[in-house]
Amino acid sequence: MVKHIVITGASSGFGAALAHCFYERGYKLTLVARSEERLKGLAKQLNANWHVADVITSYDTLVSEIEQAYGPIDGWVNNAGIGEFDAVVDQTKAVIEETMMLNATAPMVLSRDCAKRMRAGGTIVNVCSQAAKVPTPKSAVYAGSKAALLQFSNALRLELRPRDIHVLTVNPGPIATPFFERADKSGRYEQSVKRIMLSPDRLARRVVKAFERAEREVNAPWWMNAGAKAYAMCPVWFERLAKRGFDKK
């Protein structure tokens, strides 16, 4: 039986890379995004279903709509997300609410609804961030939203284990995608980390492999995850040593 995978934020960037990788592995796909033109084009390439939706305004009903239109769901990837790199005192209430809604509340509700409907053997994939483990200046709200999703996912994994539904978290560092068009309007941060940016295609291949192996999480790059472990053990020491890197934003 061909498994049915749903990907939010699928029209470009990491979501599109994931769609290509799942397609190459023979999965049935339903792609969800706001951009109808890009979504239709990608869906045509991959012989996929496409569903235009703004996750923030539709997360209450999105899982049921997808299931009714395209059939039972075996894998759901919460990939849609946003960030704006600014000091908290310079961020508007609207940006804070939008970030928390899209990065935390919506994927939590979507994960809940998937858990209610998924067959045994299903997998929920929540795309979090290394920022969830190591918060940095000018990413307080973004890091907070991703940390909330990461801890939610870790608890949900334990809750769903008896039902044979798996939860995979993806914790990447900077990825070379259009994410930075909004997150880093000046372009300074993107330029400063360009040489260490992850390839979306390479990361997507790792995630699909982890999906198929029912791994707990994907962390990339390895050295950033090593730093996250050091931060967890010695936060004061780590913050002092990493100050130069933290100030790049």
TrEMBL record:
Keywords: Oxidoreductase. SUPFAM superfamilies: NAD(P)-binding Rossmann-fold domains. It holds the Pfam family adh_short. CDD domains: SDR_c. Coiled coil: none annotated. The keyword Oxidoreductase applies. Belongs to the short-chain dehydrogenases/reductases (SDR) family. This is SDR family oxidoreductase.
